[in-house]
Structures are given as C-alpha cells and as structure tokens.
Automatic annotation (TrEMBL):
Residue span, Aconitase/3-isopropylmalate dehydratase large subunit alpha/beta/alpha domain: 14-93
A Pfam entry, by short name: Aconitase
UniProt entry keywords in alphabetical sequence: Iron, Iron-sulfur, Metal-binding
Native source species: Rotaria socialis
Gene3D superfamilies on file: Aconitase, domain 3
InterPro entries: Acnase/IPM_dHydase_lsu_aba_1/3, Acoase/IPM_deHydtase_lsu_aba, Aconitase/IRP2, Aconitase_4Fe-4S_dom
Protein name listed in UniProt: Aconitase/3-isopropylmalate dehydratase large subunit alpha/beta/alpha domain-containing protein
C-alpha cells in the first residue's frame, strides 16, 4: 500500500457502470521483446496461449488500462500469427 493508511486503500472511482478504478488497479500492460525476439519466442507464445485461455474464461481488459504489444521481430510475429495466438493478444488489447 505504499504506506497509505487503511482507509485510503479502499478508495475507488467509478469509470463506467461496469468499471471501477481502485488502488492497485493495472493501468498499463505491456508485452515486449527485444529485436532478437527469437530467444524470447517461447515466452511470447506462452503469453499468447495465456491470452487465449483468459478470453475463453471471459476476462477482458478495462477501458482505463493502456495496452501495448511489441513482439520485437517479424519472426516472432509470424510465430504468433501461425499459432493463432496473435488474434487472442489483439482481442485483449
């Protein structure tokens, strides 16, 4: 809680009827890889599978969360596309 008093940890603000921003909410989510992304291809493919499972379970990204995907290389993007996981990552944001 970054030394916040307990009463401040419970503070929240309604963003929309279905979304509430509160202490600890994720507001930035980035998935990136280096230019030689081949060494991280397995990690990114695993991330894509996790995204697919999250969608299958009904998870969605709140509108107040900024998302960013940068696979790092065309090779990794091709792996993601051919595995079908790129669509899942794009749907999540």
């Amino acid at each position: 809680g970054y030394n916040l008093p307990a009463d401040q940890l419970d503070c929240s603000i309604s963003i929309s009827p279905d979304e509430t921003l509160k202490h600890g909410s994720v507001t930035l989510a980035a998935i990136t890889s280096s230019a030689n992304g081949i060494s991280h291809a397995t990690s990114l493919l695993t991330t894509g599978l996790l995204a697919k499972n999250a969608l299958d379970c009904g998870l969605r990204i709140p509108s107040f969360t900024q998302t960013y995907l940068s696979p790092g290389s065309g090779v990794v993007t091709t792996y993601l596309r051919e595995s079908g996981t790129l669509k899942s990552l794009e749907k999540l944001g």
